[in-house]
Amino acid sequence: MTSSPTATAPPQTPQTPLTLEDWRRAWPTERDDDATLAAMRRALGQYRRAQRVPRWRRRPAWVHFAPWFGATAASLGLALLVFVAQAPAPQAAETLASEVFVPVVPPERWASFLHDGTGTAWVVRTEIPSERLALLGLPYDPSQADRPQRAELLMHANGDVLAVRLIP
Amino acid sequence: MSFAPQPDHGGSETLLLLARLQRGDAGALEPLYRRESGPVYRYALALCNDTAWAADAMHDAFVALAANPTGFDPLRGSLGAYLAGAARHSLLARWRESRRWVEETDGDDAMDERADAPEHWLARAQHQQALWRAIQALAWPQREVLVLVDLQERNYVEAAHIAGIEINTLRTRLHRARARLAALLEAGMGASP
Description:
The complex is a heterodimer. Chain A is an alpha+beta fold. Chain A has helices at about 5-10, 20-25, 30-50, 65-85, 95-100, 105-115, 130-135; strands at about 100-105, 120-130, 150-155, 160-165. Chain A folds into two domains: about 5-85, no CATH class; about 95-165, no CATH class. The longest helix of chain A is centred in the first third of the chain and has 23 residues, at about 30-50. Chain B has two domains: about 10-95, Orthogonal Bundle (Rna Polymerase Sigma Factor, Chain: A), CATH 1.10.1740; about 110-185, Arc Repressor Mutant, subunit A (Orthogonal Bundle). Chain B has helices at about 10-20, 30-50, 50-65, 80-95, 120-125, 130-135, 140-150, 155-165, 165-185. At the A-B interface, helix 1, helix 2 and helix 3 of A face helix 2, helix 3 and helix 6 of B.
């Protein structure tokens, strides 16, 4: 309540209606009118000033919540760090690659890849004809030769297929 | 029955004044205020029976309109209803702050058979003073719907919108308010001390 009539004016003579007729005739006092109109003009002035500010310069509503969002994000980040620090050390990527994928390149080439780091290759999910499994040196069932086999290929950055993982 | 000046139910003149207000035209303030202040003030006065509080509630409602003229949507009701709702909000906030607020129940189903039309309880009132005193003795929710519908002659949709209740709730509450009023008048509650 900003500069309401009773906040700025001395106590008024009690005017509480005594009858229904009094209530029907009740009207704000002149002082009420003046105070309210003055406050309305001030409020409208602020509205006009806000309207004059270009839209791109107005603060978006989310700015008011930015500190809260920041604190929440920081808390979540801290919690994530603690979680990661307490988690068991991940298995070496090289070991995982060797266990999961079947190399289709010579052992030296595979060793070189592991030496350079698994970051030099990426996994591509695809479907390959079953008969191609033989070309890759993998066992396959000739009776299923016409059926595609779902697989993940470990592709080197130079385009070579380094290893294959069959997906059931 | 004509108890109070009728609020403007979205008249074109009011809409034009609002459009001027939304463009920031201060010249629209006073005409709008003069058109709507009386009913809003009387609505608040009937609820709180305190001229100072009623003036404050009316003040807050009009200042809120001037601070954000686009907050009123003519498609959702009349400007009078919008302002009355804002005044009600202000009154309730002040009531709660001052700890004078008491949740009052609509209760008293036994009174239902006395829930007559307003003309009947008006006829029963020996004089206007007794009637006013009886109205003031009603619980807030009942007094509010009685004032909105029977005294200010707002339609049910608008009254329910201002009071923030469903129309069926308003009907029930109004029925009980009338019954309670009749009982109070019969019991001499509104009689002069």
